[in-house]
Amino acid sequence: MKILTLNCGSSSVKYQLIDTSTGEKLAKGSVERIGMAQSILSISTSQGKSKKITKEILDHTMAIDGILHLMVDKELKVISSYDAIDAVGHRVVHGGEEFKASCLITNEVKEKIKENFKLAPLHNPPNLRGIEAAQRVLSDKPHVAVFDTAFHSTMPEHSYIYPIPYIFYKKYKIRRYGFHGSSHRYVFSRLKNFYDRDLKELKVITAHIGNGASMCAIKDGVSVDTSMGFTPLEGLVMGTRSGDIDPALILYIMELQELSKQEADSLLNKHSGLIGISGISSDVRDLEEEIQNNSYRAKLALDIYCYRIKKYIGAYAAALGGVDALVFTAGVGENSSYVRQKVCEGLEFMGIELDHEKNNEKSKKERKISTDKSKVDIFVIPTDEEYIIAIDTEKIVKEKKE
Fold first, then answer.
1. Which residues bind substrate (predicted)?
2. In a 10 Å sphere around its CB, with 0-12 CB exposed, 13-18 middle and 19+ buried, how is residue 252 labelled?
3. CATH of region 2-147, choose from 3.30.420.40, 1.10.645.10, 3.10.290.10, 3.40.1160.10
4. I need a labelling partner for 84 at 20 to 30 A (CA). Which of 203, 305, 358, 384 fits?
């Protein structure tokens, strides 16, 4: 099947066209600055062709229509007509407690996504706008929702219930949900290339480390804990997010600085983390460069960043009752040998031994980077959330036909 995957933000759309029979990404690209005069529509194909157009794109319907026009462009030759697209898979950030797996999009499903606006006010509204826009443009195609939170729906109550009055969970569904589920699920599934035994026998810690970052503890093939919580703010230090802090701290700062709720939210989500500590950048690459220039705050920021990851590894090893594999993925996890080394330093007592030569290899391939003596296997596995969206969409469409 040829599946169009869509990831819709408030002013952007990221897309891929994937042939699930071969795994080939026939085309990928984005639409940026939707609603502005100089919107940017881009595409690159598996044949090495590309095109970028700047024009006015008023809404998501125009954006998706523009994507499809590029797909059938005679110079690019991605597909001959819209009929070549079998289905559309949509990334939806928050599925609440209702959606424990991907599903065919119906009016009832859209209403449930809307009900979860309160849980993900920045993400679910544009996700739904993208769904409705795509349904207008490709009305004869099946549309499937793939939820970031679904993979973590297997967490036990002791992992997801917060130690606040239980009534808040019963009345408002305040609990840990977790995110990056498609990424954690994908890299775990790729371990099949390294083990002959059933993956359900493994105790695995996956580290999705990018500008946004989360970790996941996987046992019996399912998520049993994850670092992000009710929102993506909890857990690790991130590019611009604080991660775990004393909850009373923000109340204290709000009083000191006379901050509004919106200003406090911005402080924690946009001005904290690496950028907040370093005062230089939220990008690990920039900070690594500044460390070479003896920047104290760049080094401090990355020391804190790596230390928090290390602490979660220890916590999840305890929660799992041991660990067989540690997987690094996403932008930083895949590309920063410095971060991987700093995280693994001092964990030899747990059987985590990094092979420094393998760790320093410049490679985009899936690979094992632990020593032969290491009791815990360490991997770098590039993530592919769009592939998860595509295969889930294919599976659900086939089930519907049956």
1. 91
2. exposed
3. 3.30.420.40
4. 384
